[in-house]
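Hi R.,

Here's the chain you asked about this morning:
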Amino acid sequence: FCKGLQLELVAGMKRWIFDSIQGMVSLPLLRGRLEPQETGTPRRIALCRRHYLSGVVAANHRLALTRLLCGSFYFRGLRTNLLDHPPSSLLCRRCGEGLETPGHVFMQCRDALTVAERESLRESLLRSGFTLRTPSTEVGATQLMKDLIFNWDTVAEIARFVCKVARGWRWFGRRLPTLVSEFAPNTDDEGEDEELETGTEDGSDDGFGTRGNRNGDGLLIN
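And here is the predicted structure, written out as tokens:
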């Protein structure tokens, strides 16, 4: 009886975690995710040591990616009900050309510094045999982010890219003082404490101061 109850509790806990993530608007990159496996095809796993925790060696890159995935950064376009907010308040702070979501910011935004980092990512992936296409839709951009993150072969490069873009956006208007102490010593982020403190708690800062084999919008091709 106890063994059966234990299994039932674990299964219920995993269902609760999965359902909670699916219902949170701030976690678009975690919804419906498939975890890459050492062997075999990616599959849904509620609880495990995530591949990016071991696949990304640089501590600052790993932390930035984890913050992004877990919804710690503020994006204006991630709202439970978009109709409750003025359209202008949802647009990208840098380019104003679309809803400010993780997919748009990292894969579509035309901000000069963001574009420069994206081109650097494109060149890095190309050297590894991957072609990065620019998605034309926000849905495609979000899927492309997932394809890059949940892939053993590209997670380290996308984590580096996320860290550099997030720093350029002043961590998307969120005060994250714990970033300072969590950064590993002797990394390229050491000594940037002042920059980390420039965001505001409500996100009012304007932002300044799977290996793919599918044909489709913004997917990786090797």
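One quick note: Confidence is low (pLDDT under 50) at residues 189-222.

Cheers,
M.
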